[in-house]
Amino acid sequence: MQRDIEVKLLRTLLAVVNEDGFSRAAQSLHVTQPTISQQIQRLESIVRAPVFQRAKRPPRLTPAGRELVAHARRVLMLNNDVLSRVSALSSRDSFTMGCSTHLADGLGTMLTRLAVERPQVRCSMVTGQSAALADGVRTGKLEAAVLLGTATPRSELLGRLRLDWFGRAPLTAGRRIPVALLGGGSALGLHITETLNRNNVPWYSLTGCSDPLTLLASVQAGLAYTALGADTHVKQPAIRQAPPGVLGAAPAPLPVYLALSATVRESVVDAARTAARTILESSPVSPP
Prior knowledge:
Blueprint: H1 7-19, H2 22-29, H3 33-47, E1 52-53, E2 60-61, H4 63-91, E3 93-100, H5 107-117, E4 121-128, H6 130-139, E5 144-148, E6 155-161, E7 163-166, E8 177-180, H7 187-198, E9 203-206, H8 212-220, E10 226-229, H9 232-235, E11 254-260, H10 266-280, E12 285-286
Parallel strand pairs: 3-4, 3-5, 8-9
Antiparallel strand pairs: 1-2, 5-11, 6-11, 6-12, 7-10
Helix pairs in contact: 1-2, 1-3, 1-4, 2-3, 5-10
């Protein structure tokens, strides 16, 4: 049958050794002396050997007792270490933050920096379109979010994302130009259509772009044009810049915001700002 030593029995053993007797050990542990005696007897029954030479006053350890004390000190140190580490984990600030898919390239750097600079903070990330993330901030599902072209009641302007036209779709005289746009009320998509109309470009929306990966694949495959961060062709060489003049002037830079929920804890706000600034380091964002 498996035998286990309770930590409190080892603590009692060390108290008797450190206080040089049962009576003082009882005082230090705020229990009665009979309780100390009972716990030592229980310990001896578990290890199946006497721990103290009771004929001696004050009590002296037996060889088995000396061996047990050496191990007891290590067990108590490990016990304290485990408790302190678990307590530190449970006391860390944690928050859930959203990030526009158009700015998600910086997430890896952001998570690494937070882990190094703010180890007491745990950050869970959610990516998606800014409109949906903004709703999450308003309802409190997200405590913060980095949004492209979408402001909320409590938001801070972080900068402006520089944009350019990308794509190499075949062009036919007199035919409208295929443009890839995200559905779901994308702020970038609306900005693109407004710019195309302002540039008097005949265009039509390429259907089937329900997520950013599909949109990028359409542009890479030469099926459509779109506007993306101005450095996209550097990060993804397969995405090529559009020929000059095909779509007119590039869209104006789009504002990037850090949105904060109404109930966000102040202890989290600074961490969210650090995360947001780190995310933008890898994007062509100009200062506000």
